[in-house]
C-alpha cells in the first residue's frame, strides 16, 4: 500500500492516489482494523507501528525466493529465452525502478504486450489499473492459447491467502482482454502442483476489493478522525501484532484467559464491559456461568482476588515476572490416579496444513513423543519418539506407539498416559479410524481410562493469573529454572520448523534437515517432561507425593469385577482378512490387470470399512458422551443440544400413562439454558437425564458398582462419577424466552422398569444414544464374508459395482441406452424410456439418476417402477425417511399406474383408536408377512397381476428374515444423495439390481464418525467423485427443471450444477405481476445475532406483505389469481429463527398457529416442496457470531435446496457483514465464494422498482 501522484489527465481519480496490492487485500481480509491502522499511519494520523522482528519470516522469504528461482530455471530449460521474432519463450519483466504512475503504466503495458505476442511464459508480469498493482510469478500459455496464473509458494499446502492473490491476477488478465484459464495453480515447496477453479472464489476477491476501496475512501476523507481501538464498526482479528499491541495498551478484555472475540462482543453488548478491569468489577448474582468464570479469572489477573501463592521467575528475555494461582476445588486433584512407575507423558506434534501428495488429504501427526517415568527422581526421564513423514509412516507410527503401550502395560498394569489438553485423545481416535488399525487398542485405552488429561484437572481445580492456560504459562509454577529455551518454543514454531525440515529434506540439505528435526524433538521432549512435572506438582497441592506413590506395591485388580469389553469394539476377523488383501495385493499375487486390481482393492477396502461403519459411528457418540461426563458442568452450557436446567418442577408426579403401561412417567416443566445453534425440537425423545448427587437410588447402585471396579483396579484409581441416568426424557415443548440462550421446557421422564420412584430432579439432559443397527451390521458382515471368500475376484453384485466405481453392467454387455435412442418406448417420456431400458437390461448391477430440484426425479422414477411392475418385477423402495418412501409410493400409483393392492408397507403403530391413524392407499402388513407378499408376484394366483412393491427402511431390507439375499428384482434407493455407501451396501444384499435416485448437491449425508475409507459419503456423491453432476457412464442427469423460471434456474445451475441445469419451457410461462423473476438480495444490517434475528424477521414480514396480493398465474392456460400467504415460503437457517419469524408473521396476520398461511421452516423441512416465491433468512450477523461454523451456514447444498424451492423468485435476506470473514482452507473459500457470487449477481430488492412485469387491462403480462 503506497501513494502516487496522479497525472492531471486522470482528474477523476481520488487524490492522493492510493495504490494497493493483493497482499494488502489479504491483510485486510485477515484483520481490517490493522489495515486501516496502517493506512492512518501512511496518512500521518497515527505514529508508525514497529512490528516485532520475525526471523522465521525472514528466512522463509529467502527460501521462497530460491524456490521461485528454481521454478523459473525449469521454465527456461523447457521453453528457452524469449524470442521477439517468434514471440515465444520465457519473457522476464524487470522490476520497476520507481513506484510512480508513469513507470507502473509502462510496466503494465510491457506485460500485456508480451502476453499478446504469445510468450510461453511471462515471469513477474506487472499489473496496474490506477488502483491495483501486483506482480504475478508466472503466466503460462496453455495449448488453447489461454494463460494460466501460476504462483510459487514455499508452503507444502495451498493457503487461502495465496488463492486470493491468484484470483487478483486472473481478474487483471480478464480486464485486459487476455484469454484466461479457468484454473489457477500453486507450485508448492515440494514441487507438487495444486490447481483450483478460479471461478469458485473470484467473487470473494471482487468483494474484498470493493470493501477495501470503500473503507479506504472513508478513511482518506479530510474530516476522518484517527482510528480508535474502541471503534466497534471495524472488525479485527484480536491477535495480529497490531491488535496485540492495542489489546495490551487498552487492557482490553481479550487479555482474560479463554476470552474469544464472540465473548468479547457479548460482554460489550450486554454488560458494557470493555476492559479486563471492567470485567473484574462486574457484579450480579444471576450472571451466566461462563460470565461468572470469566469475571473471576479477570479478578485474579488484575490482582483483585487473593491468591493461594505467587511465584516469581525470570523469563527468556531476562525480565522478572510473577504468576499466582488459587485452588478453586481440590476434588479433581484428589482424583488424579496414583503415580505408577510405568506412567508415560505423551505429546503429539502435528501439521494440520500438510497435504498428502497422493490423495490430497490434509494434516499429519509427524511426531508421537513421550517420556517415561524415571526410576530415580534424580535421573532425566527417557525420551521415546515415533516419527512419521508420510501417510504410511503415520500409520506405522500409530501401530508402533500402540505396541509400545501394550508391552508397557503388561509390565506395568497400573500405568497411565498423561497428556495436556484433549488433542492427544482426539488425535488417537481419529488416526485409528482414518487408518483402520488399532481401533480396539485405542478403545481399550479410553474405556479403561488409561489416558489422563491434566488440562481438565487444571481447569476444574485451579485459577491462574495468566492470560492463557497453555502449559507454557503454567511452567513457572513447577519447572523452576528450567524454563523453555532453544530454536522451537511454541507449537506454531514447531509447525513452521517442520515445514523448514521438509524443504531442507526435499532440496537435499540433509544436515539442515536433521538439525531442524533435533530442535523439534527437543521441543517435544520438553513438553513431555513438563507434563510429568505438572502431574507431580498437582499431586503436591493436596499433599500427595508421586515418589511415595510410585514406591507403593501394586495390587492386582479383581478381574471378576472388570466389565467385559463390548464385542463391537473389536475389529472382526473378516475385516482383518480384507485389510490384509488391500495392503498386500499386487498384479503378481492376484493375476489381475493393474486397472482391474485398482478397482478391486478399492471395493474391498470400502467393504472392510463399511463393516465397521456403525461401530465407528457409535464410538463417536459415546466418546463425546463420556468426555462430557468427565468435564465440569459449567462447560456443558456451550455444547449444542444439551439442556442445563435452571428451574425445574414436577407438574405431574410418577404415574402410568395407561393401565397396561409397564413403566411410570412424570411430567416436569421449567426453564433451561441451551447453546445457540442447537437442533432440539418438540418431540425429541430418548434424551439422557443427568443428575447431581445425591443420585436416584438405582443410579447410586450403578455408581457404587463402578467405584468397586475402579478401587479394585490398579492402585485404587478413581471412577468417573456417573451422572447419566437409565431414565429417558421426551421433550414435549421447547420455547425461546426473551433472554438469549434461555428456553422454557416441558419434558416427560420415564423411569427404568423395576426402579423404585425417586424425588431427585435431573440437572441436565444430553443427546440420546444412537439407534441400534444390528440388521445392517449383520448384512454387511455377510457381504464381507462373501467378498473375502471370492478374492482376488469380486462377486457380481450391484453394491460392489458402485463402490468399485464400475459402470453399470448390462446383460448384452453394451453401454447404457441414451435418451432418443430408437426402440426404447413410446417417446412420451423419453427419459423414463431410457432409464427403463437400462434397468431392464441390468445384470446384478445398478443405474444412477441425478435429479436436481424440480426436474421430476420422482415423476420419472415412478413411471419406470410402474412399467417394471407391469412386467412382473418385484421392487423395493427404501430411503432415509418414511415421508420420502411414501411420496414415491404415491407416485407409483398416480404416475406409474400401480394398484394399491400391489403395494405394501409395514403396519403403523396404533394409538387408542383406529380413527387416530389416517388411512393409506396401499396395504399395511406385518413385517413377518413380507416374504409372502412379495411372492404373490410369481404365484399367478393373486387377483392383482404383475409385480409387487414394498416400501421400507434399511432395517427391513437389511433383515434377512424379511428379504432373503437377492430376493428383490430391483431396490430403489430414493434420495440416494443422502444415503451413505455403508447403508447402501447393507440394503443391497436384498436385491439383484439397484436404482439410485437423488441429488448429492442437495442436503448431504450426515455422519459423526471418522472412517478409513469414505463409506460415510453418499452413494451418488461417491459415483460423482467430486464433480457436481453425475458422469454419464454411471447413469442419467435430469437437466431440465420444471419448477424454476430460467432467471431463477440459472444462478442455481451455476452454484451447484456446472451450468448444466436449465429450465423446461413450461417453467418460463408462469407470471408474477410487478416482480421480475430471479434471485434478489436484501441487506439487513444487525449485530450480535447468532441463530435468530428480529431485524431480519421484520423485513421478512414486510416482504411477505408486499408480495401477497400480487397477480400470479401458474400456467398460460390458467387465470390470474392473487398471491396468497401460503404461496410464500420462508426458509430460515436455524430453528430459533423459524420461531422468531413465525411469531412475527402471526402478529402480522400472515400465518396462524396451525401453520396455515406463510410457511416457515428450515431446509430439512422443505426439501421436495415449492412455492412461487421463497424468502431465505440467514439470521446470523457475522461469522464470529455463528455457532456451527460458516461452512454449515453457507453450505452450497443447503443454499441450493433453499433457493430452488422457488418457482419465480427467491429473496436472500442477510446481514451485509455475513461474508466479511476469512476462511481457513480452500474448501471453505469455495463455499464462501458460492454464496458471495450468488449475492453479488442477485438484484437488490430495495433498489429495484418492482415493475418488471405488469398486467394491462386485458390481463396480459408485459415485461
Written description of the protein model:
InterPro entries: Coronavir_polyprotein_1ab, DNA2/NAM7-like_C, P-loop_NTPase, PDDEXK_AddAB-type, RecB_nuclease_TM0106_put, RNaseH-like_sf, SF1_C_Upf1, YprB_RNase_H-like_dom. Residues 119-242 form the PD-(D/E)XK endonuclease-like domain. Residues 1035-1215 form the DNA2/NAM7 helicase-like C-terminal domain. This is TM0106 family RecB-like putative nuclease. Residues 704-725 are annotated as: Disordered. The chain is α/β, with parallel strands linked by helices and 1263 residues long. It has six domains: 2-30 and 47-220, Lambda Exonuclease, Chain A (Alpha-Beta Complex), CATH 3.90.320; 251-305; 330-551, Ribonuclease H-like superfamily/Ribonuclease H (Nucleotidyltransferase, domain 5), CATH 3.30.420; 641-710 and 720-762, no CATH class; 806-908 and 920-1038, Rossmann fold (3-Layer(aba) Sandwich), CATH 3.40.50.300; 1046-1247, Rossmann fold, CATH 3.40.50. The protein contains 40 helices and 43 strands. It has an eight-stranded parallel sheet with strand order 26-25-27-24-28-29-23-30, with helices on both faces. A six-stranded mixed sheet has the order 3-4-5-6-7-8, with helices on both faces. It has a six-stranded antiparallel barrel with strand order 17-18-21-20-19-22. Strand 5 and strand 6 (147-152) form a beta hairpin.
Amino acid at each position: 500500500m503506497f501513494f502516487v501522484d496522479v497525472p492531471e489527465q486522470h482528474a477523476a481519480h481520488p487524490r492522493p492516489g492510493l495504490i494497493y496490492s493483493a497482499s494488502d487485500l489479504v491483510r485486510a481480509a485477515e484483520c481490517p482494523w490493522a489495515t486501516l491502522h496502517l493506512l492512518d499511519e501512511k496518512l500521518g494520523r497515527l505514529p508508525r507501528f514497529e512490528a516485532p522482528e520475525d526471523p522465521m519470516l525472514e528466512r522463509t522469504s529467502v527460501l521462497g525466493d530460491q524456490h521461485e528461482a528454481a521454478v523459473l530455471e525449469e521454465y527456461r530449460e523447457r521453453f528457452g529465452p524469449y524470442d521477439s521474432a517468434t514471440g515465444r519463450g520465457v519473457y522476464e519483466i524487470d522490476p520497476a525502478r520507481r513506484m510512480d504512475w508513469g513507470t507502473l503504466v509502462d510496466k503494465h503495458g510491457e506485460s500485456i504486450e508480451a502476453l499478446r505476442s504469445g510468450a510461453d511464459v511471462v515471469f513477474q508480469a506487472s499489473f496496474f489499473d490506477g488502483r491495483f498493482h501486483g506482480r504475478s510469478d508466472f503466466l503460462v500459455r496453455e495449448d488453447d492459447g489461454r494463460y494460466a496464473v501460476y504462483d510459487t509458494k514455499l508452503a507444502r499446502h495451498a493457503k487461502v491467502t495465496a488463492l486470493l492473490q491468484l484470483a487478483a491476477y486472473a481478474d487483471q488478465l480478464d480486464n485486459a482482454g487476455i484469454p484466461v484459464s479457468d484454473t489457477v495453480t500453486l507450485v508448492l515447496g515440494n514441487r507438487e502442483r495444486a490447481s483450483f477453479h478460479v471461478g469458485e472464489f473470484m467473487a470473494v476477491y471482487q468483494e474484498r476489493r470493493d470493501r477495501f476501496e470503500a473503507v479506504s475512501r472513508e478513511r482518506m476523507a479530510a474530516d476522518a478522525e484517527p482510528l480508535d481501538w474502541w471503534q466497534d464498526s471495524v472488525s479485527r482479528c484480536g491477535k495480529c501484532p497490531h491488535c496485540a499491541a492495542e489489546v495490551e495498551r487498552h487492557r482490553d478484555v481479550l487479555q482474560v484467559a479463554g476470552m474469544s472475540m464472540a465473548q468479547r462482543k457479548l460482554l460489550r453488548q450486554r454488560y458494557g464491559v470493555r476492559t479486563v478491569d471492567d470485567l473484574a468489577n462486574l457484579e450480579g448474582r444471576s450472571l451466566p456461568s461462563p460470565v461468572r468464570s470469566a469475571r473471576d479469572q479477570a479478578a485474579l489477573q488484575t490482582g483483585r482476588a487473593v491468591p493461594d501463592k505467587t511465584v516469581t521467575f525470570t523469563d527468556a528475555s531476562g525480565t522478572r515476572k510473577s504468576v499466582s494461582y488459587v485452588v478453586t476445588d481440590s476434588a479433581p486433584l484428589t482424583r488424579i490416579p496414583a503415580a505408577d512407575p510405568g506412567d508415560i507423558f505423551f505429546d503429539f506434534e502435528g501439521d494440520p496444513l500438510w497435504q498428502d501428495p497422493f490423495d490430497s488429504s490434509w494434516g499429519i501427526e509427524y511426531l508421537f513423543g513421550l517420556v517415561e517415568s524415571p526410576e530415580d527422581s534424580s535421573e532425566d526421564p527417557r525420551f521415546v519418539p515415533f516419527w512419521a513423514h508420510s501417510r504410511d509412516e503415520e500409520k506405522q507410527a500409530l501401530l508402533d506407539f500402540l505396541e509400545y503401550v501394550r508391552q508397557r502395560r503388561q509390565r506395568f498394569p497400573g500405568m497411565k498416559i498423561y497428556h495436556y489438553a484433549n488433542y492427544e485423545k482426539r488425535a488417537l481416535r481419529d488416526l485409528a479410524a482414518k487408518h483402520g488399525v488399532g481401533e480396539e487398542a485405542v478403545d481399550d485405552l479410553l474405556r479403561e481410562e488409561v489416558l489422563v488429561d491434566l488440562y481438565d484437572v487444571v481447569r476444574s481445580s485451579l485459577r491462574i493469573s495468566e492470560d492463557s492456560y497453555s502449559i507454557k504459562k503454567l511452567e513457572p509454577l513447577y519447572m523452576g529454572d528450567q524454563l523453555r529455551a532453544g530454536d522451537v518454543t511454541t507449537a506454531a514454531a514447531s509447525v513452521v520448523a517442520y515445514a523448514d525440515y521438509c524443504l531442507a529434506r526435499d532440496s537435499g540439505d540433509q544436515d539442515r534437515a536433521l538439525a531442524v528435526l533435533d530442535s523439534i524433538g527437543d521441543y517435544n521432549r520438553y513438553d513431555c517432561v513438563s507434563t510429568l512435572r505438572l502431574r507431580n506438582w498437582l499431586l503436591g497441592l493436596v499433599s500427595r507425593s508421586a515418589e511415595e506413590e510410585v514406591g507403593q506395591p501394586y495390587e492386582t485388580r479383581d478381574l471378576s469385577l472388570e466389565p467385559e469389553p463390548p464385542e463391537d469394539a473389536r475389529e472382526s476377523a473378516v475385516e482383518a482378512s480384507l485389510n490384509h488383501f488391500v495392503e498386500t495385493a499386487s498384479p503378481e499375487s492376484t493375476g489381475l490387470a493393474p486397472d482391474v486390481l485398482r478397482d478391486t482393492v478399492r471395493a474391498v477396502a470400502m467393504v472392510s470399512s463399511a463393516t465397521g461403519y456403525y461401530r465407528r459411528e457409535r464410538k463417536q457418540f459415546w466418546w463425546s458422551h463420556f468426555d462430557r461426563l468427565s468435564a465440569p458442568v459449567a462447560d456443558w452450557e456451550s455444547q449444542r443440544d444439551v439442556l442445563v436446567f435452571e428451574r425445574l418442577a414436577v407438574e405431574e408426579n410418577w404415574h402410568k400413562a395407561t393401565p397396561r403401561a409397564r413403566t411410570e412417567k412424570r411430567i416436569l416443566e421449567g426453564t433451561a439454558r441451551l447453546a445457540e445453534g442447537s437442533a432440539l425440537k418438540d418431540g425429541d425423545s430418548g434424551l439422557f437425564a443427568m443428575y447431581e448427587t445425591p443420585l436416584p437410588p438405582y443410579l447410586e447402585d450403578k455408581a457404587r458398582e463402578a467405584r468397586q471396579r475402579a478401587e479394585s483396579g490398579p492402585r485404587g484409581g478413581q471412577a468417573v462419577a456417573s451422572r447419566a441416568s437409565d431414565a429417558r426424557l421426551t421433550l414435549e415443548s421447547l420455547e425461546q424466552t426473551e433472554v438469549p440462550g434461555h428456553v422454557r421446557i416441558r419434558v416427560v421422564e420415564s423411569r427404568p422398569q423395576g426402579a423404585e420412584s425417586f424425588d431427585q430432579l435431573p440437572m441436565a439432559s444430553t443427546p440420546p444414544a444412537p439407534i441400534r443397527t444390528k440388521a445392517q451390521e449383520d448384512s454387511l458382515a455377510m457381504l464381507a464374508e462373501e467378498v473375502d471368500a471370492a478374492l482376488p475376484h469380486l462377486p457380481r453384485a450391484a453394491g460392489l459395482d458402485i463402490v468399485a466405481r464400475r459402470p453399470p453392467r448390462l446383460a448384452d454387455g453394451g453401454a447404457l441406452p441414451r435418451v432418443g435412442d430408437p426402440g426404447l418406448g413410446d417417446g412420451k417420456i423419453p427419459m423414463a424410456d431410457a432409464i427403463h431400458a437400462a434397468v431392464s437390461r441390468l445384470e446384478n448391477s445398478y443405474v444412477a439418476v441425478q435429479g436436481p430440484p424440480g426436474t421430476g426425479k420422482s415423476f420419472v422414477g415412478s413411471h419406470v417402477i410402474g412399467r417394471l411392475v407391469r412386467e412382473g418385477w418385484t421392487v423395493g423402495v427404501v430411503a432415509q425417511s418414511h415421508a420420502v418412501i411414501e411420496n414415491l409410493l404415491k407416485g407409483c400409483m398416480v404416475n406409474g399406474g400401480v394398484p394399491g393392492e400391489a403395494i405394501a408397507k409395514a403396519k403403523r403403530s396404533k394409538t387408542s383408536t383406529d380413527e387416530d391413524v389416517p388411512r393409506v392407499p396401499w396395504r399395511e402388513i406385518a413385517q413377518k408377512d413380507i416374504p409372502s407378499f412379495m411372492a404373490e408376484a410369481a404365484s399367478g394366483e393373486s387377483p392383482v397381476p404383475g409385480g409387487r412393491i414394498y416400501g421400507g427402511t434399511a432395517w427391513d431390507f437389511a433383515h434377512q428374515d424379511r428379504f432373503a439375499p437377492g430376493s428383490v428384482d430391483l431396490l430403489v434407493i430414493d434420495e440416494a444423495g443422502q444415503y451413505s455407501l455403508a447403508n447402501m451396501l447393507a440394503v443391497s444384499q436384498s436385491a439383484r439390481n439397484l436404482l439410485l435416485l437423488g441429488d448429492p448437491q442437495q442436503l448431504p449425508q450426515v455422519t459423526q464418525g471418522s472412517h478409513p475409507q469414505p463409506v460415510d459419503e453418499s452413494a451418488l456423491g461417491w459415483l460423482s467423485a467430486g464433480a457436481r453432476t453425475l458422469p454419464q457412464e454411471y447413469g442419467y442427469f435430469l437437466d431440465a427443471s420444471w419448477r424454476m423460471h430460467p432467471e431463477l434456474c440459472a444462478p442455481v445451475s451455476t452454484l451447484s450444477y456446472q451450468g448444466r441445469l436449465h429450465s423446461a419451457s413450461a417453467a418460463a410461462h408462469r407470471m408474477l405481476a410487478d416482480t421480475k423473476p430471479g434471485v434478489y438480495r436484501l441487506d439487513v444490517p444487525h449485530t450480535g445475532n447468532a441463530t435468530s434475528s428480529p431485524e431480519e424477521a421484520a423485513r421478512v414480514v414486510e416482504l411477505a406483505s408486499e408480495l401477497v396480493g400480487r397477480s400470479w398465474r401458474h400456467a398460460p392456460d390458467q387465470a390470474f389469481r392473487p398471491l396468497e400467504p401460503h404461496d410464500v415460503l420462508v426458509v430460515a437457517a436455524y430453528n430459533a429463527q423459524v420461531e422468531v419469524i413465525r411469531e412475527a408473521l402471526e402478529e402480522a396476520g400472515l400465518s396462524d398457529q396451525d401453520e396455515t398461511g406463510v410457511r416457515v421452516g428450515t431446509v430439512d423441512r422443505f426439501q421436495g416442496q415449492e412455492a412461487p416465491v421463497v424468502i431465505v433468512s440467514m439470521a446470523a450477523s457475522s461469522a464470529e457470531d455463528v455457532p456451527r461454523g460458516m461452512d454449515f451456514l453457507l453450505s452450497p447444498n443447503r443454499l441450493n435446496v433453499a433457493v430452488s424451492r422457488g418457482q419465480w423468485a427467491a429473496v436472500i435476506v442477510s446481514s451485509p457483514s455475513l461474508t466479511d470473514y476469512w476462511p481457513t482452507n480452500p474448501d471453505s473459500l469455495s463455499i464462501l465464494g458460492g454464496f458471495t457470487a450468488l449475492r453479488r449477481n442477485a438484484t437488490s430488492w430495495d433498489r429495484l422498482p418492482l415493475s418488471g412485469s405488469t398486467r394491462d387491462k386485458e390481463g396480459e403480462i408485459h415485461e
